[in-house]
């Protein structure tokens, strides 16, 4: 909870606001935290005339007075994702140099904004997203493909707003905090290329609609830093969330060890690796002496085979793998969850592992893990962590306690 609280949209936004604009203030945005950010901006600037549109995930809206909030689907776009994108592009038309555009960007924005390039349809984009989500591709790789197929991502929203000044406030959810990757960088110049997108498609053996492949082979000038003004401000990050968790751990008498805010790879493999580190601490006091807490963030992947999968997300898969590797070892506990409150597409943020995890369920842990059905396992053991939407998003937070 300390990690999530560190990324509270109101507190984060208040500390990063620019001078109040003199001309028109247009607000656009996308992501799981965008509605909460919009409400915070309205509260901070009650006397400023503003209008605009932001899009967030279904169930993540909050009341606003001057900024319209649209809800759309995540992680695969729907018709409202396209409607929201068109409304945002309409908001930034015909602006002047004296106008100011505030872009409120957070994780999840890539699917929540969908404005397909000419020649492809929303159904084509949906097919691409579904294929990417099953492939095991990293978030950076997925967004490289998405940008090449979009008329709003990769800086094209900022390009449409010219000559107005564009200020982008970002709550980061991606490893490395690269603004190009967060929500596919709608207001940030794009350095990716169509060839890079094609390489990713070939690397993962993705079968995509012919329309998509044809558009990727159609040259298009990228949005460069020379074309758009880039005032980009990271207002909350995964590293800040881990630091907040570490501070709480110290006060409780644990030695915190932050392993990094950008861990990637297969969720199940990370679970095995983390079990090994925890055992080393317990038995040898290496790399730190217990009682200790291993903290990490980032976005792992779950590669789904042809047989498909049950219910689950990155965090519950990591935790079930960790539990299987630990085999009920005493003195080791863990919690992991997505800071937005939703692990994948389920209603849980994540789950908890204790030495009794493998004995509390009637399901076979290894078989359930192989079927990518980790949600079902933790539901049966009573170990799911259900918070509801937190209205922020700084990616996954993992903590392994070694007594």
TrEMBL record:
The keyword Transcription does not apply. It holds the Pfam family MOFRL. Gene3D superfamilies: Glycerate kinase, MOFRL-like N-terminal domain (3.40.50.10180), MOFRL domain (3.40.1480.10). Signal peptide: none annotated. Residues 293-396 form the MOFRL domain. Residues 2-216 form the MOFRL-associated domain. Keywords: Kinase, Transferase. It comes from the Bacteria. One of its GO terms (molecular function) is kinase activity. PANTHER family: GLYCERATE KINASE. This is Glycerate kinase. It comes from Enterobacter huaxiensis. The lineage of its organism: Bacteria, Pseudomonadati, Pseudomonadota, Gammaproteobacteria, Enterobacterales.
């Amino acid at each position: 909870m300390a990690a999530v609280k560190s990324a509270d949209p109101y507190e984060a936004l208040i500390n990063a606001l620019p001078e109040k604009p003199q001309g028109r203030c247009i607000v656009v945005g996308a992501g799981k935290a965008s509605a909460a950010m919009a409400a915070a901006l309205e509260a901070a600037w009650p006397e400023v005339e503003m209008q605009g549109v932001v899009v967030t995930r279904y169930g993540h809206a909050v009341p606003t007075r001057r900024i319209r909030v649209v809800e759309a689907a995540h992680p695969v776009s729907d018709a409202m994702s396209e409607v929201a994108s068109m409304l945002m592009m309409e908001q930034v038309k015909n602006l002047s140099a004296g106008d100011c555009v505030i872009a409120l960007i957070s994780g999840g924005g890539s699917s929540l904004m969908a404005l397909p390039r000419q020649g492809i349809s929303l159904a084509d984009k949906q097919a691409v997203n579904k294929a990417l989500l099953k492939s095991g591709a990293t978030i950076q790789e997925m967004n490289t493909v998405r940008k090449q197929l979009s008329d709003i991502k990769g800086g094209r929203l900022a390009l449409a707003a010219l000559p107005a000044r564009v200020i982008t406030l970002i709550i980061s959810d991606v490893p490395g905090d690269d603004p190009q990757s967060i929500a596919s960088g709608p207001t940030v110049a794009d350095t990716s290329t169509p060839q890079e997108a094609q390489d990713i498609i070939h690397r993962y053996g993705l079968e995509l609609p012919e329309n998509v492949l044809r558009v990727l082979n159609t040259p298009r000038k990228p949005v460069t830093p020379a074309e758009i003004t880039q005032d980009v401000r990271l207002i909350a990050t995964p590293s800040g969330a881990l630091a907040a968790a570490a501070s709480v751990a110290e006060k409780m008498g644990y030695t915190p060890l932050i392993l990094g805010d950008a861990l990637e790879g297969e969720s199940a493999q990370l679970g095995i690796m983390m079990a090994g580190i925890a055992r080393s601490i317990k038995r040898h006091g290496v790399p730190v002496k217990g009682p200790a807490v291993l903290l990490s963030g980032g976005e792992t992947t779950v590669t789904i085979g042809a047989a498909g999968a049950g219910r689950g997300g990155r965090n519950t898969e990591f935790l079930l793998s960790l539990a299987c590797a630990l085999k009920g070892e005493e003195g080791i506990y863990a919690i992991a969850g997505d800071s937005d409150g939703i692990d994948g597409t389920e209603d849980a943020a994540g789950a908890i592992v204790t030495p009794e995890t493998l004995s509390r369920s009637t399901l076979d842990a290894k078989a359930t893990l192989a079927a990518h059905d980790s949600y079902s396992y933790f539901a049966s053991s009573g170990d799911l962590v259900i918070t509801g939407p937190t209205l922020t998003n700084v990616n996954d937070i993992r903590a392994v306690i070694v007594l």
